[in-house]
């Protein structure tokens, strides 16, 4: 048995009062120098950055206390808003667990992260069929990019769970709890329990 000699990967963090789940896209306005530096570094390296839920503190100003689990965000598009600020469209990819966080001189938090495993290819179980139906109705009603997904995606337990976590009017703490679950069926169980 050999010891794991791979060093933890470091990832710049962009803590927010929101939870980004894998496959979801969000828009950001970037104006603080520490985050402009982070975005520039990501552009140069072709890497993403981490989005974590803020547990204590504000998005602007002093470094915050953020959740240990987050999602890597990759930049899909960027531009300038009417106010001249940098605007980004980012998409959630891999989940991570931040093991240690240090704060750079400019206030940017950088975490040593362990990547969570990829979602397994699992079929929606019969007891979660209601959730796949609910997602289909939501997508039919609101449209958007996921409405164009192949119908077979509604059989994918992980995809159904992430889309419901993204689209349902959940509290951030509930979304964070879903993000931290590794098993897609446990995620669907939790979603069923959260439905009114």
Automatic annotation (TrEMBL):
SMART domains hit by this protein: LON
A Pfam family assignment: LON_substr_bdg
Family matches, as Gene3D superfamilies: BPP1347 like domain (1.10.4060.10), LON domain-like (2.30.130.40)
Domain Lon N-terminal, first and last residues per copy: 7-196
Record SUPFAM superfamilies: PUA domain-like
Name of the protein in its database record: LON peptidase substrate-binding domain-containing protein
Organism annotation: Lysobacter cavernae
Lineage of source species: Bacteria, Pseudomonadati, Pseudomonadota, Gammaproteobacteria, Lysobacterales
């Amino acid at each position: 048995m050999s010891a794991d000699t791979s060093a933890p990967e470091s990832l710049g963090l962009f803590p927010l009062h929101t939870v980004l789940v894998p496959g979801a896209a969000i828009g950001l306005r970037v104006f603080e120098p520490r985050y402009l530096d982070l975005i520039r570094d990501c552009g140069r390296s072709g890497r993403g950055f981490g989005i974590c839920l803020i547990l204590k503190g504000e998005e602007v100003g002093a470094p915050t206390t953020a959740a240990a689990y987050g999602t890597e965000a990759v930049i899909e598009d960027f531009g300038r808003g009417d106010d001249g600020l940098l605007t980004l469209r980012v998409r959630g990819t891999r989940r991570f667990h931040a093991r240690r966080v240090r704060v750079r001189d400019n206030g940017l938090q950088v975490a040593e992260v362990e990547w969570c495993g990829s979602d397994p290819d699992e079929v929606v179980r019969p007891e979660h069929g209601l959730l796949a139906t609910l997602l289909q109705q939501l997508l039919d009603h609101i449209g958007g990019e996921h409405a164009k997904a192949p119908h077979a995606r509604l059989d994918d337990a992980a995809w159904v769970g992430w889309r419901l976590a993204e689209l349902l009017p959940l509290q951030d703490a509930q979304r964070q709890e879903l993000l931290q679950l590794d098993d897609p069926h446990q995620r669907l169980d939790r979603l069923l329990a959260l439905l009114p």
